Amino acid sequence: MKNKPFVSQTKALITIGTLKNDLYSLGAAPGNIVMVHSSLRSLGWIEGGEVTVVEALMKTVTEDGTIVMPAQTTHNTDPKYWKNPPVPEEWRPSIRYMMPAYLPEFTPTLGMGRIAEAFRTFPNVKRSLHPSNSFTAWGKYAAFIIDHHSLDFAFGEQSPLARLYELDASILFIGTDYSTCTAMHLGEFRANDGRKSFQQGSALMENGERVWKTYHELEGNSEQFNEIGHAFEKEEEINIGTIAQAPCKLIKIRPLVDFTARYLSNLLKR
């Protein structure tokens, strides 16, 4: 009975077949390389829920293509930076000491949504080794994208984002906006806007033992991403449509990353 209001708000039964048809209409096709940001609830009530969505994506791009999703675990970070909620300063040494190590096969995602978390558990999905900003991938280029994810600067040149840029991949927004667009962090990294790096930390496994490891990250600000994205759409054509009941966009990663870098660099000059 808990789902009754949600079902009543769904205009027609949503199945794997209807999802595939909508993906094709948006421009997705076999062989595509696509990074997905998604909101399950935006789609309406789906027969099979998030599992059906993942299967529809896989059947659309096929094994000749590749699907990538963010799999971040931002709870595995230095508690001195936590804000939602902050923790008392006297707790921080114990949190660093007791934080479970990142285990790619088991550590759940945080704040990525039910579709991304389900995707993580599917057979043949690979996950990068970064303890707080990992990515998952399935398909032809999964290993190329996921392997060799640098501990320092997780969204920089030695990241899955840079490999997606090389492959001329696309970004699929399912009921989400630019504030979720992880790829724009690569634009931040490439922008010449004077932003600083800082020392982050996470628990991970090293030589079979759990350790607290420090590394470098770049200051990021996803609060600017919707502003940048709306400016981008005034200059570039993008695919806009609907999947089930969710407003969706399909965008090439290269022009968006390049535009983000230029936009942020120009802000510094104003």
Automatic annotation (TrEMBL):
What's a Pfam family this protein contains? Antibiotic_NAT
Transit peptide listed as a keyword: no
> What Enzyme Commission number(s) does the record list for this chain?
2.3.1.-
Broad enzyme group: transferase
Q: Does the keyword Acyltransferase apply?
A: yes
Keywords associated with the record: Acyltransferase, Antibiotic resistance, Transferase
Signal peptide per UniProt = none
Instruction: Indicate the family of this protein.
Output: Belongs to the antibiotic N-acetyltransferase family.
The entry's protein name is: Aminoglycoside N(3)-acetyltransferase
Write the lineage as a comma-separated list: Bacteria, Bacillati, Bacillota, Bacilli, Bacillales
